[in-house]
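Example A, followed by Example B.
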Amino acid sequence: MAPTKSTVPAEVGPSSHSHSLSPQLPPSSSFVYSQNQRPPYLASLSDTQFAAATYGASKSLQILAGPGSGKTRVLTSRVAWLILDPGNSLQPEDVVVVTFTNKAASEMKKRLDVLVGPERTARLIIGTFHATCARYLRKYGQLIDLRNNFSIMDADDR
């Protein structure tokens, strides 16, 4: 079965750009946590953020929310939950974390070092869309007759 994608806001609030996720949805983990029994890496999340962070381990997730709303906290908590919750049976190299900016990727790596440890963080696939795609093209490009020493150019490089 192919993974499904869901879009949830980091916080439920008035927004015409995202769909709300009901905070009463149970996590898909084999463990259901009460507010005071959550592991430390999930303890600081609101109910809505918690629902997003623990939303279906076999499903991709996109977080849409404004600045300062907790997106990075939700995403890093989700990555921690994916690899630390025994009900998920995932290793760090099974998780791909894609961001828009190098700054966001760097911040997520720092936070994940604290949440899951530097050894696990080093095994994650984490980066910008461009860096992640380039990494996979360099690794698997030969399957489509692409040499791994290609260069990526933008309009200014012409």
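Example B, a separate protein, is given below in the same form.
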Amino acid sequence: MSSSINPTEFSAGKPISLLRYLALLTYESLLIFAVLFIAGLLALPWTQGKPSIFYTLYLVGVIFIYFAWHWHKGHTLAMQAWHVKICTLDGQPVSWEWALIRFGVAFLSIACGGLGVFWMLWDKQKRTWQDIASRTQLVHFPKN
């Protein structure tokens, strides 16, 4: 899968369903658990197993870099497995600035009991809060 898609290809895809979105969230949570496990092990010599605000910020930073890097490429590992791409509404890769906005709004979306995710049930374009705020869309491309 390429890192960006042209606007014609983007418009050929269709917005993902809530079921596919929830499957993506489940898969992503497993991947994030593994990434945080490794990040925690790498930080263990400095933290000595003691929680701190710096350790928390470090882990949040690791999560952001994981998502932002992959969103900029067009998909995370979970998105690739589910044949989903992310890009801006004009078919461009997600910039680091928009990734930061998407990341922050996604956190708020889930912190509100998932209301921002379930918003796609009422939005005519099937967008979540993070899609709307970052001017992006998750699009499903069936396996060729």
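On Example B: The two ends are 11 Å apart (CA to CA).
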